[in-house]
Design goal:
By secondary structure, the chain is α+β, with helices and mostly antiparallel strands. It has two domains: 237 residues, 3-Layer(bba) Sandwich (FAD/NAD(P)-binding domain), CATH 3.50.50.60; 131 residues, no CATH class. Helices cover 26% and strands 25% of the residues. The protein contains ten helices and 20 strands. The protein is elongated, with a radius of gyration of 24 Å. The relative contact order is 0.18.
Length: 390
C-alpha cells in the first residue's frame, strides 16, 4: 500500500448508486460491513425515482424467468427472488393493478428512493461518494474515481447499461468489467418508442387507443394488449414499449394493430353496411365506431369499398418498423456483460470478489416492473454472498 497511506479501504465498494446499488447498500446498512457507495451523479437513485412514470412500479406478481431475455433462463430463475422479498426493505403499503404491477399506495416512485436513502444515511458503516465517476478499476481492488482513489476487498459493479444517459448510464462501465476478461454482448435500446412508416398515420399524432398489438419479423414474436400512442415519428405507449423488446434487434419488423379487440369483425362489417344503406359518406363509414380521425385514416388506407375488407383493416392495421428512438429514450439496455463467467452468486469467475448487479448484465425484462425486480433480486443475491463470506 506504499504511496496510498491516505486512501480509504472498505470491505465492499459498490459502483453505481441506482436501484440495485442503493438496495444493496440498504441491506448492508444493518451490518458491520464497511461499504463505499459511489455514484457519478449528484443524487442517489435518480432513475429509480422516475420508474413507472414516476409512480414506482417496482415489481410484478407475475414475475418469472419467462419475462426476461437471457441466454440461460435456468441461471436467471435461480437468482430471481419473490415479490415479498423485494418489498421487505421498504416500509409502506403496496397495491397491485390488473396487470400484476406493484406500486406503493402513494404512487410516488420518489418515496422508494427516499426509503433507501434514509436507511443508507443512518448507517455508520456506509460512505456515499456523489458526483464521483469511476474511471478505472484495477486488481487489488483499487477504484479510481473523479475525486481520488479508494480500495476494497470486494467490488460490486452496478453502474447500469447504456440506456437513458441523463441518469448517468452511458455504457462506459462495461470497460471496467472487460479489464477482467469479461465480454460485452451486442447492445440495443429496449422498452423504447418505435420509428415507423407514417404514410397512413400522419393525421393520428397524439391519438391514444387501446388495442391488441403484435410484433412480427418473419414470424409472430409477441402479442399484447395496451395503449398505443401515435406520434410524428411512429408509435409509443405501453404496448409498444413491450413489443420494442422483441423487435429492437430485428430487421424488417412489422407491428400489427387490432382496433376494437372486443368487437368481432362481422359486427363492424354489419355496422358499415347499415351506414352505407343510410347514405353516409364513405369517409364516415367508421363514424361512432372508432375515433373520427382514426376511422377516416383507415378509410383512406383501404382501397376497397367492400365492408369485409374495411373490417379486416380495422382488425389488422399494419405498420412497418424503421428502428427505435435509440438509447437516449430507452428504459433499459438489451445486451451487456455476458453471463458466461458469472456465477449464480453473480461473482466473476475470472476475478474473485468482483460482482455484477442489474442492467450491466446481459439480462433485460419486459415492461411492467420486471427490470426493477431483477435489479433488486441481484442485490439480495450479492448481499447473501458477501454477508456469508465475511
Amino acid at each position: 500500500m506504499s504511496g496510498r497511506t491516505n486512501v480509504k479501504h472498505y470491505d465492499v465498494a459498490i459502483i453505481g448508486g441506482g436501484a440495485s446499488g442503493c438496495y444493496l447498500a440498504a441491506l448492508l446498512a444493518d451490518t458491520d460491513i464497511r461499504t463505499a457507495l459511489i455514484e457519478s451523479r449528484d443524487r442517489l437513485g435518480r432513475k429509480l425515482s422516475a420508474t413507472g412514470n414516476g409512480q414506482g412500479n417496482l415489481t410484478n406478481v407475475n414475475v418469472g424467468a419467462d419475462k426476461y431475455f437471457c441466454s440461460d433462463r435456468e441461471w436467471l430463475a435461480d437468482i430471481l427472488c419473490g415479490v415479498e422479498d423485494v418489498l421487505s426493505p421498504f416500509c409502506g403499503l403496496f397495491e397491485t393493478d390488473d396487470k400484476g404491477r406493484v406500486y406503493p399506495c402513494g404512487r410516488q416512485a420518489s418515496s422508494l428512493t427516499d426509503a433507501l436513502r434514509t436507511k443508507i444515511g443512518k448507517s455508520n458503516n456506509i460512505d456515499v461518494y456523489l458526483s464521483s465517476e469511476v474511471t478505472d478499476l484495477s486488481e487489488g481492488y483499487v477504484v479510481t474515481y473523479s475525486g481520488g482513489q479508494l480500495t476494497a476487498d470486494k467490488v460490486v459493479l452496478a453502474a447500469g447499461g447504456k440506456a437513458a444517459k441523463q441518469f448517468g448510464t452511458d455504457g462506459r462501465a462495461y470497460s471496467l468489467a472487460e479489464k477482467f476478461g469479461h465480454k460485452t454482448t451486442a447492445l440495443y435500446p429496449a422498452l423504447v418508442q418505435l420509428r415507423t412508416d407514417t404514410t397512413y398515420t400522419k393525421t393520428l399524432k397524439g391519438l391514444r387507443v387501446d388495442c391488441n398489438a403484435t410484433a412480427e419479423a418473419g414470424k409472430t414474436l409477441r402479442t399484447c394488449r395496451g395503449d398505443v400512442i401515435f406520434t410524428d415519428y411512429g408509435l409509443s405507449g405501453n404496448a409498444i414499449f413491450t413489443l420494442s423488446s422483441f423487435v429492437t434487434d430485428k430487421a424488417g419488423a412489422v407491428i400489427r394493430l387490432e382496433f376494437l379487440p372486443d368487437i368481432p369483425a362481422h359486427e363492424i362489417e354489419r355496422d358499415i353496411r347499415r351506414k352505407i344503406g343510410a347514405g353516409y359518406e364513405r369517409s364516415e363509414w367508421l363514424a361512432c365506431t372508432l375515433p373520427n380521425v382514426l376511422g377516416r385514416a383507415i378509410m383512406r388506407r383501404c382501397a376497397s369499398d367492400d365492408p369485409r375488407e374495411i373490417a379486416r383493416t380495422v382488425k389488422d392495421f399494419r405498420v412497418e418498423c424503421r428502428g427505435t428512438l435509440g438509447f437516449d429514450y430507452a428504459q433499459v439496455t438489451r445486451g451487456g456483460i455476458g453471463i458466461e463467467g458469472v456465477s449464480r452468486n453473480l461473482e466473476s469467475e475470472y476475478s474473485r470478489g468482483l460482482y455484477f448487479m442489474g442492467e450491466i448484465l446481459d439480462v433485460d425484462g419486459e415492461c411492467g416492473g420486471y427490470n426493477l425486480h431483477w435489479a433488486f433480486s441481484c442485490a439480495r443475491r450479492v448481499f447473501d454472498a458477501i454477508y456469508k463470506r465475511r
